[in-house]
Amino acid sequence: xxxxxxxxxxxxxxxxxxxxxxxxxxxxxxxxxxxxxxxxxxxxxxxxxxxxxxxxxxxxxxxxxxxxxxxxxxxxxxxxxxxxxxxxxxxxxxxxxxxxxxxxxxxxxxxxxxxxxxxxxxxxxxxxxxxxxxxxxxxxxxxxxxxxxxxxxxxxxxxxxxxxxxxxxxxxxxxxxxxxxxxxxxxxxxxxxxxxxxxxxxxxxxxxxxxxxxxxxxxxxxxxxxxxxxxxxxxxxxxxxxxxxxxxxxxxxxxxxxxxxxxxxxxxxxxxxxxxxxxxxxxxxxxxxxxxxxxxxxxxxxxxxxxxxxxxxxx
Length: 315
Hints:
Elements: H1 16-27, H2 30-37, H3 41-55, E1 60-63, E2 66-69, H4 71-99, E3 107-112, H5 115-126, E4 135-140, H6 146-154, E5 160-163, E6 172-176, E7 182-187, H7 199-204, E8 208-210, H8 222-229, E9 236-238, H9 241-249, E10 255-258, H10 262-268, E11 271-275, E12 287-291, H11 298-308
Parallel strand pairs: 3-4, 3-5, 8-9
Antiparallel strand pairs: 1-2, 5-12, 6-12, 7-10, 7-11
């Protein structure tokens, strides 16, 4: 690039244009970028035209699947995104500090996860005094489609997505949980289960299974595949894990939960759990997903640390 690019009437560049360009590159669509930034499509088109004029470059090229950034646009993105992220993180730190002093300030944290993680994590947050004022925690379990989940993260409509791997995205940071083991959960005075359970007995017991509305092929349900492969029938299926737990408490039915959830359930209800070495634990890998610009957000990192901590693993 020659110095002529920066000379003349276009020598000063509005940095807001770079924010808009980053949104277009991350979403792959001018329309989605407009939705993320809560702007009109004409504002995005105007910004792209100003960038084209300034750099004498097409910036993005329309394709059948969206827009494709030029090499110059990619270089701009790679060099400016870290600076914008650092600026956002700095502003958020000031916002976090101010929120501890101003009781009238309320920040909403939106978390997508399944119902059992919702139950466990909200219990941890309720017990933390610093989050009892000044925050609103919104939990949702939808959508289940991976691309929709990513889009909500890109648009910052969801702050943290806790669940199975959503795929790779340049705007999203993912952090895997420590090894998650699965356990059998049952009432403490169960008439047939003592200190161990094998696959034969598992097959014979009445099982309350956990699914979601997305059905058998959902990435949120790796256990469904395991039971299908082992030809083990489950009589009752529900997309509410809390519904499962309440029935386990009041019947001889059993269910399967992540091990880190089990101690809390046993503390609150008359339940016990047993680890079984025949589950495909390696397939049950969970991640915390956040937007890259939130990497230094103290509140989101605190929530992630809660999910990743020694207490979470039940150690």
